[in-house]
């Protein structure tokens, strides 16, 4: 069997791969009544609610995600031009408290260091440094 005889079969299978992998499926239907503008105030309020309610069930159960969450909230507030509403000194102190003796960073106090959370801590520190320079 030569390669030329296999080529049409190969291209046919690639073109129809979306059928098997279900790429074209519409998984979300947005109603016409849905908001058509970005509600920045609601986003800012949600982030502040998460920061202020430190003893809430959601906050306690997601403690292992805290360092990454700080990074994403910090970035979201910056994108929305609301970074001045964040207590950057408290964030910097929290990141310092999460540093472990081995040099890595934990996702929260009294947790073990992990590469992912070390990356998030470095990103948070770089963001805070950059924001101070502005």
UniProtKB/TrEMBL annotation:
User: What residue range is the signal peptide?
Assistant: none
Domain Prenyltransferase alpha-alpha toroid: from-to ranges: 38-126
> What cofactor(s) does the depicted protein rely on?
Zn(2+)
Species of provenance: Brugia timori
Give one GO term, molecular function aspect.
Rab geranylgeranyltransferase activity
Q: Which family does it belong to?
A: Belongs to the protein prenyltransferase subunit beta family.
Write out the GO cellular component annotations.
Answer: Rab-protein geranylgeranyltransferase complex
**Name of this protein:** Geranylgeranyl transferase type II subunit beta
Which keywords are on file for this protein?
Answer: Metal-binding, Prenyltransferase, Repeat, Transferase, Zinc
Entry's Gene3D superfamilies?
1.50.10.20
Q: Which Pfam families match?
A: Prenyltrans
């Amino acid at each position: 069997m030569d390669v030329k005889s296999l080529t049409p079969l190969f291209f046919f299978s690639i073109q129809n791969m979306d059928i098997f992998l279900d790429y074209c499926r519409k998984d979300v239907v947005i109603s016409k009544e849905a908001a058509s503008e970005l509600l920045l105030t609601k986003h800012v309020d949600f982030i502040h609610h998460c920061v202020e309610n430190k003893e809430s069930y959601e906050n306690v159960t997601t403690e292992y995600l805290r360092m990454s969450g700080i990074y994403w909230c910090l970035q979201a507030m910056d994108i929305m031009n609301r970074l001045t509403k964040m207590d950057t000194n408290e964030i910097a102190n929290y990141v310092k408290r999460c540093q472990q003796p081995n040099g890595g960073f934990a996702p929260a106090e009294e947790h073990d260091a992990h590469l992912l959370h070390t990356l998030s801590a470095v990103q948070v520190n770089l963001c805070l440094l950059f924001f101070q320079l502005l």
